Amino acid sequence: QVQLVESGGGLVQAGGSLRLSCSASGSVVSINEINWYRQAPGKQRELVAAQTPTGTSNYAESVKGRFTISGDNTKDTKYLQMNSLKPEDTGVYYCNALVLMDDEGSTWYGWGQGTQVTVSA
Question: Which runs of consecutive H residues, i.e. helices, occur in the chain?
């Protein structure tokens, strides 16, 4: 079965940077499409960044110019580079991905378990 695992979260001071990774394991060839969500305590999960299978990336207005998705669609890992972090960026970050399986024409779509990002003032 396919698993998505996020990593790279942690505690950082305001203005600092983190790079999150989303790695797919199992009978996986690559991640073709990825969405990054975050959920702050007491708030609903929100989409902050997304990349299509063709590589087009879109970002929530609140993170535009600070967050960047990287990693091409031939690999099993995608990244979210987070710069100029603010306390309001604090939350659990999740990846949601369309994964190309190691079977011709097969895909899988699901969620990782999340990684905590905490930005101190």
Answer: none
The answer to whether the beta carbons of residues 34 and 105 sit under 8 Å apart is: no
Q: What amino acid is encoded at 118 in this protein?
A: T
Q: Count Cβ atoms within 10 A of the Cβ of residue 118 and give its class: 0-12 exposed, 13-18 middle, 19 or more buried.
A: middle
Sequence length of the chain is: 121
Torsion over CA: 72, 78, 83, 86 (sign) = positive
* Whether 99 contacts 32, CB under 8 Å: yes
Q: Is the pLDDT of residue 113 over 90?
A: yes
Q: What are the residues facing 80 on neighbouring strands?
A: 20, 69
Q: What is the pLDDT of residues 34-72, one digit of tens each?
A: 999 999 989 999 999 999 988 899 999 999 999 999 987
Tell me the C-alpha to C-alpha distance, in Å, between residue 96 and each of 11, 26, 48, 84, 86. 23, 16, 11, 24, 23
Strand ranges (E), 1-121: 3-7, 10-13, 18-25, 28-39, 46-51, 57-59, 67-70, 77-82, 91-101, 107-111, 115-120
Residue type, 85: L
